[in-house]
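1st attempt posting a full record on here, be nice pls
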Amino acid sequence: MHDGRFPFELISGVPVVTAPEEIDITNAPGLRSALLEAAEHGYGTLVLDMTRTQFCDSSGLHTLLAAHKRAQAKGGELLLVLSATHVLRVFAITGIDRMIPNFTSLDQALAQTSADRPNGHRRPDGAPEGSEQNGLVAHGTSEPDGEAC
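the predicted structure (as tokens):
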């Protein structure tokens, strides 16, 4: 766990960071640190739960874009859980809603992940790891490959 200001937990192998009510220049560096720390515990996908977040300034947006780019560089992704309409509006105006996948519930975001994959990434076709088109399931290794976001 982080220092408590930005807690994270592993849910089905996916690190989920809980964002504060406000993200601004005073706490964006702490959020960045929490995202980096949480990413060390995952293998591709990282979720930021922003359901409590009511405000996000440009330093917060910068932090999210940096985390998104870091995750992509490692073959993963950052997923956001957003519910506040005014935060969603800022994301829409800036285009971030089209760059970073976002969902209205944590369950929806987690459904987009597949922690069963060896590297924590989704299959390109979106199907769960081990599933085959003919309905047969192939069991692979669950050993991590050493990658981190």
